[in-house]
Design goal:
Order of helices and strands: EHEHEEHEEHEEHEHEEHH
Structural class: alpha/beta
CATH superfamily of the largest domain: HAD superfamily/HAD-like
Shape: elongated
Number of helices: 8
Radius of gyration: 19 Å
CATH architecture of the largest domain: 3-Layer(aba) Sandwich
CATH topology of the largest domain: Rossmann fold
Strand content: 15-25%
Length: 270
């Protein structure tokens, strides 16, 4: 695969968090953020005139914690929480997760390797430490959802999540793309999990680029091998865009494109 062209000023950039910006950890609370990443995201947010959003399965409050002091536009819990440029987080009514918790807590108590993660309008069971329990977890989630209205299961990497039905990352990206500063730009979404596939489909329908971090069958149109490779690409792009912004008054026709790559990002990857 040819080198990935750097991000250009007309891009609307959407980034997953776990497994994309940050390496996966045995537990969600143990994730570490590379020190340089926050500065790079700040620079990209500035250079793209604010058209950068985090689209994650985590709650927005957790994203803010890991990326502090940044408070970027964000879609949390796969789009169930939504924040544009302002401080207000739009969250749908709670769908009755609480009624399911006793049975899920009992399951986790019987199998210490499992971890229950509670969110504002969702709950997830992680089995990363006991992957052999995947069939058990999937069956248990299907059982508790049998009589639950307005909820659905969302399998991911070593996790099954129960979330509001009809909410996904593709819808969140589409909503961002209808509002400034994202509207009118070419969307690019980077993610790693099967939960990101809805986002890849939407950006492709909008004429953009889906970027898979990892390797598997996917609707994405480009790939990077690892979160470290993704971060390196973001660092290089931020440096090029910052340099371009500093020199554009003196050379208005300058572009931040890698001089070794002649096609644009879209032409090269679509």
């Amino acid at each position: 695969m040819p080198p990935l062209p750097l991000i250009e000023p007309h891009i609307a950039l959407f980034l997953d968090f776990d497994g994309t910006l940050a390496d996966l950890a045995p537990r969600p609370d143990l994730v570490q953020v590379e020190p340089q990443l926050v500065g790079t995201l700040r620079a990209l947010h500035t250079c793209l005139d604010g058209a950068l959003a985090i689209v994650s399965g985590r709650p927005v409050a957790e994203l803010d914690h890991f990326l502090q002091p940044l408070r970027l536009p964000a879609a949390g819990i796969h789009g169930a929480e939504f924040r544009t440029g302002g401080e207000r987080i739009i969250t749908p009514p709670a769908p009755g997760i609480g009624a399911l918790l006793p049975r899920l807590e009992a399951l986790v108590a019987r199998h210490p390797g499992l971890q229950l993660e509670r969110k504002s309008v969702a709950v997830a069971i992680h089995y990363r430490q006991v992957p052999e329990l995947e069939p058990l977890v999937r069956a248990a989630v299907a059982d508790v959802l049998r009589d639950a209205a307005g909820l659905e299961a969302l399998p991911g990497k070593m996790v099954v999540e129960i979330k509001p039905a009809g909410v996904d990352k593709g819808d969140a990206i589409a909503a961002f793309m209808r509002t400034p500063p994202f509207a009118g730009r070419m969307p690019l979404f980077a993610g790693d999990d099967v939960t990101d596939e809805a986002g890849f489909v939407v950006v492709r329908e909008l004429g953009g680029v889906g970027l898979l971090v990892g390797q598997r069958a996917t609707a994405a149109t480009a790939m990077l091998a690892s979160p470290d490779a993704l971060r390196g690409w973001l660092h290089e792009s931020a440096h090029a865009l910052t340099h371009w912004m500093a020199t554009r008054d003196a050379a208005p026709d300058a572009t931040p494109r890698d001089p070794t790559i002649t096609p644009t990002l879209r032409e090269d990857l679509l």
